[in-house]
Specification:
Structural class: alpha/beta
Enzyme class: ligase
Bound molecules: glutamine
CATH superfamily: Amidase signature (AS) domain
Keywords: ATP-binding, Ligase, Nucleotide-binding, Protein biosynthesis
Pfam families: Amidase (PF01425)
Shape: globular
Number of helices: 16
Order of helices and strands: HEEHHEHEHEHEHEEHEHEHHHHEHHEEH
Protein name: Glutamyl-tRNA(Gln) amidotransferase subunit A
Subunit structure: Heterotrimer of A, B and C subunits.
Length: about 500
């Protein structure tokens, strides 16, 4: 594995402590590449790194409120089991997991009252792989209840704050995972993305977020929201860190019948600083009226920089983009209404006993689910009901095919598509909470990617005049992760935005 120059810079700021070992006062700031570099030279121990990260959590999480559960004892136990002889790809790396992924014996709430005390008896494939790769679990992060939302304000417990400005939303639904990475309360995190829930919070929090191709990463043990759209992916401080995590979590799984059994490349191998020969498409439909001017300026400047690195920029069309949000909210809510039928007070979590079985179902669901979840169950049940199915669900699936075809056509001409991740920077907490339609529009640029099942990454590409991060989205063809990681890495290194951190 390549040790980036950054690690050397960090080493320069190390100090010799009185035991003769180097220590770094702000170890929690390290990236995966930097931490692994220091650990392999015996200049850092996983235990010292964990101590620094947990001190950071103690100092900051009372104000950021990103963790639902902190797992200090589990991390210590995992660090104790690591053997210096058997170096693994995430050896001793402190990582946080969105609280909709099951970890055996660790409370998994989906930020919902209905699962508040649910302790899964089994492990998700992704966390199992991270465990084998040597990660140390810092905790489970907050989300919009069942991953339905764009701000974490729909969490059944509390709202997470954006580390760049505590009065603003961190995005959602993986707002907790994006906030813990931005605030250095872990070295890397895992999120899930059904319509933008990795990329939009990564954009709002100034970090890297990757939604892989549908099927590249197993969904086994991910609590289902909309099964044909859900994907798990990394949220990290740099693109190279995202590639390292993807190396670990990608791959077919017999426990997820929708996972793809393909050869997984080493995603770090294709990273370079040269984009010669790469064709980047710019879809005119993604630069819309009503989009924040400062976002547009930052994204256009990033595209010029990518051109300067050798890529050829080509204007393209994705004509069915305007229908994506409507189609998504029919398909996602339909699947959600079916997936969430299992929470009945009998099999999982909360039970509110009623006068008979039906009454128990109703009482449990009435008390256990929040407003947005109920809204979506009703919408989805309506769209699937006989007489309406053809008009709504079937139509939405047809639109989905058209959207996928738009991308297929575009990728005959270009290798990567560049767009803004979100039309605005982080909005104020409360600003959109009472207007679900406004909230739904914050994913207008991310949703088509899930409908088409293709991969996309969000990386920081500048700041607005209020000092809030702007995100650039790079979209790839099916299983084209290596290409988008390459473009993202080259841009990240040339532009250097990743070096700017929130002063929290
Ligand atoms: N914000 C979108 C929604 O509310 C996407 C959520 C997600 O990707 N999990 O459905």
């Amino acid at each position: 594995m390549r040790v980036a120059l950054d690690a050397l810079i960090v080493i320069e700021s190390l100090q010799l402590n009185n035991c003769g070992r180097y220590f770094y006062l702000e170890l929690y700031k390290l990236t995966i590449v930097e931490a692994l570099g220091l650990i392999s030279k015996h200049e850092l121990t996983p235990t010292d790194l964990l101590e620094s990260v947990f001190n950071r959590i103690t100092a900051l999480d009372t104000s950021v409120k990103a963790y639902v559960t902190v797992t200090k004892d589990i991390a210590a136990e995992q660090a104790g089991r690591l053997s210096m002889l058997n170096r693994t790809p995430l050896y001793g790396i402190p990582m946080a997991i969105k609280d909709n992924m099951c970890i055996k014996g660790v409370r998994t709430t989906c930020s919902s009252k209905i699962l508040e005390n649910f302790i899964p008896p089994y492990e998700s494939t992704v966390t199992g792989k991270l465990q084998e790769a040597g990660y140390c679990l810092t905790g489970k992060t907050n989300l919009d209840e069942f991953a339905m939302g764009s701000s974490t304000e729909n969490s059944g417990f509390f709202t997470t704050k954006n580390p760049w400005d505590l009065s603003r939303a961190p995005g959602g639904s993986s707002g907790g995972s994006a906030a813990v990475v931005a605030a250095d309360m872990c070295v890397a995190a895992i999120g899930s993305d059904t319509g933008g829930s990795i990329r939009q919070p990564a954009s709002f929090c100034g970090v890297v977020g990757l939604k892989p191709t549908y099927g590249l990463v197993s969904r086994f043990g991910l609590v289902a929201f909309a099964s044909s759209l859900d994907q798990i992916g990394p949220i990290t401080k740099t693109v190279e860190d995202a590639a390292i995590v993807l190396n670990v979590i990608a791959g077919g799984d017999r426990r997820d019948s929708t996972s793809a059994h393909i050869a997984i490349p080493d995603y770090t191998a294709s990273l370079s600083s040269d984009l010669k020969g790469m064709k980047i498409g710019i879809p005119e439909e993604y630069f819309i009226d009503g989009m924040d001017k400062e976002v547009e300026t930052a994204v256009r400047a990033a595209i010029s920089e990518i051109e300067r690195l050798g890529a050829e920029v080509i204007s393209i069309k994705l004509p069915h983009t305007a229908y994506a949000v409507a189609a998504y909210y029919i398909i996602a809510t339909s699947e959600a209404s079916s997936n969430l039928a299992r929470y009945d007070g009998v099999k999982y979590g909360l039970r509110v006993s009623g006068s008979d079985l039906i009454d128990t179902y109703m009482e449990t669901r009435a008390k256990g689910f929040g407003q947005e979840v109920k809204r979506r169950i009703m919408l989805g049940t309506y769209a699937l009901s006989s007489g309406y199915y053809d008009a709504y669900y079937k139509k939405a699936q047809q639109v989905r095919t058209l959207i996928k075809r738009d991308f297929d056509e575009a990728f005959k001409v270009v290798d990567v598509i560049a767009t803004p991740t979100s039309p605005t920077t982080a909005f104020k907490i409360g600003e959109k909470a009472d207007d679900p339609l406004q909230m739904y529009l914050s994913d207008i640029f991310t949703i088509s990617v899930n409908l088409a099942g293709i991969p996309a990454i969000s990386i920081p590409c500048g700041f607005d005049s209020g000092g809030l991060p702007v995100g650039l989205q790079l979209i790839g063809r099916h299983f084209g992760e290596a290409e988008i990681l390459k473009a993202a890495h080259a841009y990240e290194r040339a532009a250097g935005w990743y070096q700017r951190r929130p002063s929290i």
